[in-house]
Specification:
The protein is mainly α and about 140 residues long. About 85% of the residues lie in helices and about 0% in strands.
């Protein structure tokens, strides 16, 4: 009987460790994402509000800079993967493009169709983009 209990309890330990590891990764990913968000927003505001670029172009440029920043930091600190760096960057960038696409869709709906300020739409899109990209990057870019 004791061996049955031990055998049943054994799988719980790796599951608990995996959950802790995932939580640590999520916290690091979110912190690094915060630096990327700050960089993204500052560059977007400068390009859109100061330089007068269209919000779609400003978004693509600011997001690309943030994606590159976040890739380097996540490769080093979150997922601790330094192998196949070019492949991983291309996957990470492809995931980043989903964020650009989602944000641009939100611009079309909320800014172009409903007249909501592009700065608010950009800021409001960030939590949605973060959640989508964490899942994709964890399972594909850094798997």
């Amino acid at each position: 009987m004791a061996s049955d209990t031990t055998a049943q309890a054994a799988p719980a330990r790796p599951v608990a460790e995996d959950r802790r590891r995932t939580l640590r990764q999520l916290v690091r990913y979110t912190l690094i994402g915060g630096s990327g968000i700050a960089l993204d927003m500052v560059v977007f505001l400068l390009l859109h509000n100061w330089a007068g670029l269209d919000e779609q172009i400003a978004n693509a440029l600011s997001t690309t800079l943030a994606i590159t920043n976040n890739f380097v930091l996540n490769a080093l600190f979150t997922f601790e993967r330094r192998d196949r760096i070019v492949v991983r960057f291309l996957r990470f960038y492809a995931v980043g493009l989903t964020g650009i696409a989602l944000t641009n869709l939100l611009f079309l709906v909320f800014t172009d169709a409903l007249g909501i300020d592009a700065n608010l739409v950009k800021a409001g899109s960030l939590p949605l983009v973060l959640a989508l990209q964490f899942g994709l990057n964890r399972k594909w870019s850094f798997a």
